[in-house]
Amino acid sequence: xxxxxxxxxxxxxxxxxxxxxxxxxxxxxxxxxxxxxxxxxxxxxxxxxxxxxxxxxxxxxxxxxxxxxxxxxxxxxxxxxxxxxxxxxxxxxxxxxxxxxxxxxxxxxxxxxxxxxxxxxxxxxxxxxxxxxxxxxxxxxxxxxxxxxxxxxxxxxxxxxxxxxxxxxxxxxxxxxxxxxxxxxxxxxxxxxxxxxxxxxxxxxxxxxxxxxxxxxxxxxxxxxxxxxxxxxxxxxxxxxxxxxxxxxxxxxx
Amino acid sequence: xxxxxxxxxxxxxxxxxxxxxxxxxxxxxxxxxxxxxxxxxxxxxxxxxxxxxxxxxxxxxxxxxxxxxxxxxxxxxxxxxxxxxxxxxxxxxxxxxxxxxxxxxxxxxxxxxxxxxxxxxxxxxxxxxxxxxxxxxxxxxxxxxxxxxxxxxxxxxxxxxxxxxxxxxxxxxxxxxxxxxxxxxxxxxxxxxxxxxxxxx
Lengths: 254, 201
Known about the structure:
Chain A has 254 residues and is mostly helical. Chain A has helices at 3-17, 23-35, 37-73, 85-109, 113-120, 131-135, 139-145, 149-158, 164-177, 180-197, 203-216, 220-231, 244-253. In chain A, helix 10 runs antiparallel to helix 11.
């Protein structure tokens, strides 16, 4: 095979594995592959190279998340000698009991909406997208992804008739900026939208964050009502985040 | 915010298949399974570092199998991850040539209904060798190939990001890099076999 024929053949295989061929061209190559063992071998070789890259990328992505998680946990496991276990266990139990009593006392006397909110609120992060998905990303999502919450809020105020997802981003941006009345409005719109359409788009997320927004806005009874509803629904996404303890804390504040 | 507190298996599988919310999903897998699988390794001759290393391999193998449609949810994700963990640790242990723990111990610890997935997953050492081989490509080649094949970016996007003269120049460079990688693979029969296993199961 001369160089130019070789080049054309390689080019054809690249276009095939990269998904750039039209149906007809694809069928023609697939027919050639049935007849031409060398061509098939070359294709397998290219597929292996692509597979190596996919494995490399995946391994790097997992390793990077692994490092972050281990840093966050930072919980070294120290091996323990068996014969010291009993004494150690009693010591730990006493320390834990004392620490627990101190924490309870501290929490009782220092309970504020700000503290409860800080314990419960988590920022929402949009997932990393592949390029195909990025093409369809709205201006609001881009601003949110860039953590430009002021811009998100400006966009929310410019238009109306948002989707549940966009309303959720509006609400979360308002939460980030501390505009809790506006966040309440956005989350309530999501609830109304879902009620009207019998859907559950961002409904659980909206209910939980609405409860927190009410809490921070001093509307404790409304917050409590939502939290009780989430707590009593085991299928609610935030069911496990709404503990008895949280409900008692909000009750004490109200 | 975490993806969910209790994420159903089907949502995890959907995320891994489509690549959407991948980072969050991997975090959910860590949150829900790392301690259990780590406990198994630390109770079967390994230490915390072994558990961390093997868990990374478990996650990589699992995502790979899901993407190739070789895990369709016949068992729960929990059971399947346990099975991969056990296989990888058993192989690692055998390599270390320590006879203290016998295979039966693993058999006793594992559920009988687990699928045999040993032929579908690459051993840790094999995968490490594959990573070292790709590292030989050089940074520019790795960057272009990762952006195109792993992140699914278009040639135009890569051209704009890496500041090449034209889209065609990037395309030619990508082809050269792939050929270089092919040569490296073909010169290494053991890695070639690993890749065959990964491609064909």
